[in-house]
């Protein structure tokens, strides 16, 4: 971050960490952001908390995409009765003339007719597995008997889901997103109503239990039921971890802190790919993935609550206790008088606000356009993000490596906002990244299959920039809503984004009518939404709003203040 952007007062505090800030002339001048600067914007206490919340972030990454491996198709071909034996491999000499080709691969559901098969006497040892007996006509695999290429076990070959029924495998991904659609707003409400740490611990432990139970599913229907419940309960982990990270550190370190948090999402995806590669049995994979997350039960006691949330709910003693603990761990002095002034300022702020402690109706009334724009932006991000991931076949053919590569390319995207958000602002960073990703999608159209290296490069850059843009969006959305509704409104926008994730798997159908249609859809949506983000208020270096009135004041030009009192929507002193 540019050093020139650091306010002089902030620099003074950081150069003299042991010194107490000058006594405020007015209690309202004492803000939580000012105290966090004094304690250290990203000290040992914050680092300890971040280490704790990175763990549920990793678990959430694995929970939300396990269906990629548990409900994947398994490569197979018809069992050729007159040729195959129990020891036959996937590729045999007779597959060249008995199995039709589907591109470069063997057809999974059809075989060529053998004109001698109806009168074949198997007990007589007659050999009719000869090329001249096979014609051009095909038939479906008899009795659903197949020969598999790998020893992988998914719900496909466990529950007998093949060929015409493979839509059931795609349905798992849809049910996964439907569960998140309902779970995200519920989890956001729980986080705003009962606390961030409570929401993380509850969502994590419920997801863990349901995931383990799902590994014992006796049928496809039970698997779907627990897929839905698992993702409904654990879907809020990402946004809640992000919000608690935003609320924990000082303004200058928010971008760095949250970039570090989200990197662990990519780490979780890579870990899942490696687990799936090592344990190709879907039941074992679920147990390996979910059992370690039972440790989140301890978070009910060991994860400190967000001080901002405690203050917004009037839980003053708990807030003071956590700040004292932070001061002790960070080796800074924090006087009781300073905390008392913070409490007085917070009381005045809550009393002056005519809203309740959970003013959801007032928020939708005041922020309807902001929420609508944020929701559309979220839908577009999810659509482009997952839509580009469907093109993973542009990489090598190993699905485990493919998944890991796509996850790894996201890591630079998580840190890119560090270089641009404070320099260019939230709005212009979000707009520029979305438009650039859209341009990359257009570029893949002109590159074409004749230039695979260029097409692959544009694909990866497009994925990197939409990942960076998604990071900015999460950060931005956390700053434009008030503390007592931040998690709920962020979760609402994220819930609306599930429409994008439901649509993304259907986009390959467009390619049957026009090969470049998916890329054109992604590009058009990204560029349009990128332009609309300019209607958001700018939040760079602003105090996080506590009330609806403060959030509504962000971006509103005001006359010069008569006093030095810090106002919502002003640059942090």
Automatic annotation (TrEMBL):
It is found in: Membrane. Residues 50-541 form the Major facilitator superfamily (MFS) profile domain. The chain crosses the membrane at residues 47-69, 194-213, 219-243, 255-276, 282-303, 367-388, 403-421, 428-447, 453-477, 489-507, 513-536. One of its GO terms (molecular function) is transmembrane transporter activity. Gene3D superfamilies: MFS general substrate transporter like domains. Its main location: membrane. Residues 1-27 are annotated as: Disordered. Keywords: Membrane, Transmembrane, Transmembrane helix. Pfam families: Sugar_tr. GO terms for cellular component: membrane. This is Organic cation transporter protein. It comes from Drosophila madeirensis (Fruit fly).
């Amino acid at each position: 971050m540019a050093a020139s952007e650091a306010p002089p007062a902030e620099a003074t505090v950081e150069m003299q960490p042991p010194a107490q800030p000058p006594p405020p002339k007015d209690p309202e001048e004492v803000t939580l952001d000012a105290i966090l600067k004094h304690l250290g914007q990203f000290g040992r206490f914050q680092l300890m908390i971040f280490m704790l919340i990175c763990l549920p972030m990793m678990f959430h990454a694995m929970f939300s995409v396990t269906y990629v491996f548990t409900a994947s198709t398994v490569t197979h071909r018809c069992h050729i009765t007159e040729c195959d034996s129990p020891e036959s491999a996937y590729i045999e000499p007779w597959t060249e003339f008995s199995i039709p080709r589907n591109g470069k691969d063997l057809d999974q559901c059809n075989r060529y007719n053998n004109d001698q098969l109806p009168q074949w006497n198997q007990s007589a040892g007659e050999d009719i597995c000869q090329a001249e007996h096979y014609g051009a006509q095909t038939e479906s695999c008899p009795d659903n008997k197949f020969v598999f290429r790998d020893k992988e076990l998914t719900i496909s070959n466990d529950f007998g889901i093949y060929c015409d029924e493979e839509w059931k495998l795609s349905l798992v991904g849809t049910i996964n997103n439907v569960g998140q659609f309902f779970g995200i707003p519920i989890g956001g409400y729980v986080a705003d109503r009962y606390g961030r740490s409570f929401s993380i611990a509850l969502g994590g432990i419920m997801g863990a239990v349901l995931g383990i139970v799902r590994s014992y599913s006796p049928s496809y229907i039970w698997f779907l039921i627990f897929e839905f419940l698992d993702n409904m309960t654990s879907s809020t982990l990402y946004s809640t971890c992000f919000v608690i990270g935003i609320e924990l550190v000082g303004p200058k370190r928010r971008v760095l802190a949250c970039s570090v948090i989200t990197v662990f999402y990519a780490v979780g995806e890579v870990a899942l790919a490696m687990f799936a590669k090592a344990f190709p049995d879907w039941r074992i994979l679920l147990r390996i993935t979910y059992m370690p997350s039972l440790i989140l039960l301890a978070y009910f006691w060991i994860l400190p609550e967000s001080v901002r949330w405690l203050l917004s709910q009037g839980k003053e003693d708990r807030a003071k206790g956590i700040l004292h603990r932070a001061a002790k761990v960070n080796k800074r002095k924090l006087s009781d008088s300073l905390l008392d002034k913070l409490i007085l300022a917070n009381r005045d702020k809550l009393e002056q606000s005519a809203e309740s402690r959970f003013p959801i109706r007032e928020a939708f009334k005041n922020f309807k356009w902001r929420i609508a724009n944020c929701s559309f932006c979220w839908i577009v991000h999810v659509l482009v993000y997952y839509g580009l991931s469907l093109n993973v076949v542009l990489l090598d053919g190993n699905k485990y490596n493919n998944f890991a590569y796509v996850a790894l390319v996201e890591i630079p995207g998580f840190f890119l906002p560090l270089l641009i958000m404070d320099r260019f602002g939230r709005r212009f960073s979000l707009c520029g990244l979305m438009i650039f990703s859209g341009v990359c999608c257009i570029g893949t159209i002109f590159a074409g299959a004749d230039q695979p290296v260029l097409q692959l490069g544009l694909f990866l850059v497009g994925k990197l920039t939409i990942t960076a843009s998604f990071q900015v969006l999460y950060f931005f959305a956390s700053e434009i809503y008030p503390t007592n509704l931040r998690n709920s409104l962020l979760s609402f926008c994220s819930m609306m984004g599930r429409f994008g994730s439901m649509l993304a798997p259907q986009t390959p159908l467009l390619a049957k009518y026009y090969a470049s249609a998916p890329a054109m859809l992604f590009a058009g949506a990204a560029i349009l939404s990128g332009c609309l983000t300019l209607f958001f208020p700018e939040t760079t270096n602003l105090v996080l709003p506590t009330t609806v009135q403060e959030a509504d004041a962000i971006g509103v030009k005001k006359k010069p203040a008569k006093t030095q009192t810090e106002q919502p929507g002003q640059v942090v002193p």
